[in-house]
Design brief:
Neg-reg_MecA, Adapter protein MecA, MecA_C_sf, 11 strands, Alpha-Beta Plaits, 5-stranded antiparallel sheet, 6 helices, single chain, alpha+beta, 6-stranded mixed sheet, globular, protein-macromolecule adaptor activity
Length: about 200
């Protein structure tokens, strides 16, 4: 479990599938009101408080992004909630100290999205992907001072998804940004065949 602060009232939590399996939680459970998920959320909030000083007070908006093969990203925003009875989760009201009002939304991305701080890392991962014959495809964006590689998993042999993720994770980190956001607010560097183009242009 990895937690980072995005702003004063917003944090991002990255959960690997191993994190979920250790707690007996399936991906589909993340938007169900069950004790194991409530316990996981409490654990996440405790860790956010101890690591970042983030107080989970008042209403919380929770966005859950399911990422193929690498895990889930949970965005928690404090103080922004439009309560809908059908999709909010309430902890036991008798325990006032641990009451969270949450509105949970789930989005599933079919794209594998990884962010890289340095262009050298983008080149390095492209060479590894090509040499390993995992893919020559992909789209490359620039967004918020980072380089984002977007790869369509349908173009990858399913048995090699884990190898693809492991290689990308070695050089970068999973990101919850969507292709729609990248196309609207980011800059397209390579619109197709990014891995192939990077290997051609930077063959040293």
């Amino acid at each position: 479990m990895k937690i980072e602060r995005l702003s004063q009232d917003k944090i991002r939590i990255f959960l690997t599938f191993d994190d979920l399996l250790e707690r007996g939680i399936q991906k589909e459970d993340m938007w169900r009101e069950i004790p194991k998920v409530n316990e996981l959320f409490s654990e996440m909030m405790d860790q956010a408080h101890s690591e970042l000083g983030f107080e989970a007070s008042g209403p919380l908006a929770v966005e859950v992004f399911a990422l193929p093969a690498q895990g889930m990203v949970v965005i928690v925003t404090r103080g922004k909630l439009n309560v809908h009875a059908d999709d909010s989760i309430h902890e036991d009201d008798e325990s006032d100290e641990d009451v969270y009002e949450m509105e949970v939304t789930l989005e599933q991305s079919d794209m594998v999205m990884y962010a890289f701080r340095d262009f050298e890392d983008v080149i390095a991962v492209a060479k590894q992907l090509s040499q390993s014959e995992l893919t020559d495809d992909g789209r490359l964006f620039s967004y918020n001072g980072k380089y984002i590689m977007a790869i369509d998993p349908s173009s990858i042999d399913p048995s090699r998804h884990n190898a693809l993720i492991a290689l990308l994770a070695e050089f970068g980190e999973a990101t919850s940004v969507t292709e729609a956001v990248l196309e609207e607010y980011g800059k397209v560097i390579m619109d197709e065949g990014a891995v192939r183009q990077l290997c051609q242009y930077f063959s040293y």
